[in-house]
From TrEMBL:
Protein's recorded name: Sodium-dependent transporter
Cross-referenced InterPro entries: Na/ntran_symport, SNS_sf, YocR/YhdH-like
Keyword annotations of the record: Membrane, Transmembrane, Transmembrane helix, Transport
Residues making up the signal peptide according to the UniProt record: none
PANTHER family per the UniProt record, alphabetical: TRANSPORTER
Assigned GO CC terms: membrane
Principal location: membrane
Transmembrane segments: 12-30, 42-63, 84-112, 132-156, 168-186, 212-237, 249-271, 277-296, 303-323, 343-366, 373-391, 411-433, 445-471
Entry membrane topology: Multi-pass membrane protein
Compartments it resides in: Membrane
């Protein structure tokens, strides 16, 4: 059987952007930003997207295009059959199962808000409405609707399902977010929201660096769909003539722009409606836009339907990219039919979704802390693989189809993915585990001194060095 490939360059870009742009931008980004100090978070997040996200995305593309396989098959075949690497690929597959579980619950909220906009049910009590519907049996029912829609598209196959959905959604979401944000700027109090979001707050960043760091890393990876194998799988359908670097840059820029745009909408809204930024939690986007639509009466109903429906489309093009991973694994590695694989995976996810929809603490743990940790660990492993198992083969793959600019930085890129980013990601993991255990890390960046953070940094360097020593083989660069 020949493997499907993307029909056009736009097909891949659209699908990969479709995976990246989703609830992570519109729902999770405002939540994380609000919870972690606004502009301080934004600053760190943007730096991480640039320095970790873009090179990391390229790493995933290299693995995918080189192997033309799902993450498990990819790591196994490129490491000449290593069981350990195959097991690491499985770790990524399991991560996507967990992600899509809570993602379905949030998708369900969007389904519900689309319907509720028609009747205006949340008008007049945006906050109370969200608290009433977020968890429980009804939330579970809506999550199942979202999950069923995801499974239906995945069942339809890579090209037909994914390319079509994404083409409609992308321009619509940009226009809607921009138009709504522009309207928001005209409201009293919007300036304070913009200030919270955009005026760099270095003092806050220094004082809370170690609290913000894992969230900023996790959010950057989440929004770029990194560390789960999604981008590996998508790139596995890619032809050799493409510049991976150009694609990675395009995807990162488009995706980041949409997240930043969502912030430009949410924060001015929260402030202008006198809503407390911090208290919204996972409901920040719902509470803020619901207040806006309510203030617009009948027009608001119409806008509400359009807004929630468009975000729903964006959510679907992301959730299909998650469900696709375990399905592609079963189809490629175990010869299961696409129909059976999709049905089986959907049933598994339904169990996870039930746990998240019925318990706010399970939801909170998964959607916040656990996601940050799992994706950080996932990307770290993938990049060590690129740097030290693929080595010169990674460079060959990177160069295929690349333009002059991308070729000029191939060496530094490999240094980033093989050494610097793994050290940084391990440092992030160690500090977040240490702070969860109550170990003092130093109160601010300059407090690195002799505090726990210095120990974490040394540990990250040592673990990376050990990993490199263990993984290095002929073909590795040093
Ligand atoms: N990037 C998606 C979003 O921002 O909504 C979420 C996501 C999709 C994460 C696919 C991970 C993944 F593998």
């Amino acid at each position: 059987m020949t493997r499907e490939t993307w029909k056009t360059r736009a097909g891949f870009i659209l699908a990969a952007v479709g995976s990246a742009v989703g609830l992570g931008n519109v729902w999770r980004f405002p939540w994380m930003t609000a919870q972690n100090g606004g502009s301080a978070f934004l600053l760190l997040y943007l730096a991480i997207v640039l320095l970790v996200g873009v090179p990391g995305l390229l790493g995933a593309f290299v693995i995918g295009r080189r192997s033309k396989r799902n993450p498990v098959g990819a790591l196994r075949s490129l490491s000449d059959g290593s069981r350990w690497w195959a097991a690491f690929g499985m770790f990524a597959v399991v991560t996507t199962l967990l992600l899509v579980s809570f993602y379905s619950v949030v998708g369900g909220w969007f389904v519900r808000y689309t319907a509720a906009s028609v009747t205006g049910s949340y008008f007049g009590h945006a906050g109370a409405y969200f608290s009433a519907i977020n968890y429980g049996p009804a939330a579970l029912a809506f999550a199942f609707v979202f999950l069923a829609a995801t499974a239906a598209i995945v069942y339809a196959g890579v090209e037909k399902g994914i390319e079509r959905a994404t083409k409609v959604m992308m321009p619509a979401i940009v226009v809607l977010l921009a138009a709504l944000a522009a309207w928001t700027f005209t409201r009293d109090g919007a300036g304070a929201g913009l200030d919270f979001y955009l005026t760099p707050d270095v003092a806050y960043l220094r004082a809370h660096f170690f609290d913000i760091l894992p969230a900023a890393v996790g959010q950057a990876l989440f929004t770029l769909s990194l560390g789960t194998g999604t981008m590996i799988t998508y790139a596995s359908y890619l032809g050799d003539e493409r510049s991976l670097a150009a694609d990675a840059a395009t995807i990162a820029v488009l995706n980041t722009a949409i997240g930043v745009l969502a912030g430009l909408l949410v924060f001015p809204l929260l402030f202008s409606f006198g809503l407390d930024v911090g208290s919204g939690g996972a409901g920040a986007v719902f509470v803020s836009v619901a207040s806006a639509f309510a203030s617009l009466g009948t027009v608001g109903r119409l806008l509400g339907v359009v807004f929630f429906a468009v975000v729903l489309l964006a959510a679907l093009s992301s959730s299909i990219s998650m469900l696709e991973i375990p399905v592609a694994y079963l189809v490629d590695e175990h010869g299961v039919s696409r129909a059976k694989a999709t049905a089986g995976v959907a049933c598994l996810v339904a169990i996870g979704a039930a746990a998240c929809a019925l318990s706010s603490s399970v939801f909170g743990l998964l959607a916040n802390t656990l996601v940050n940790l799992l994706m950080t660990a996932g990307l770290c492993g993938f990049l060590l693989f690129v740097g030290w198992v693929l080595g010169s083969r990674a460079l060959d793959e990177y160069r295929a189809g690349a333009g002059d600019v991308a070729r000029a930085v191939d060496g530094p890129w490999l240094l980033f993915v093989g050494v610097l980013i793994p050290v940084f990601l391990l440092f992030t993991l160690f500090t977040s585990v240490a702070s969860a255990l109550g170990v003092p890390l130093g109160t601010h960046v300059l407090g690195v001194g002799l505090g726990g953070s210095a120990v974490a940094l040394v540990a990250a360097i040592v673990v990376t060095a050990l990993a490199v020593a263990g993984l290095r083989r002929p073909g590795s660069l040093v």
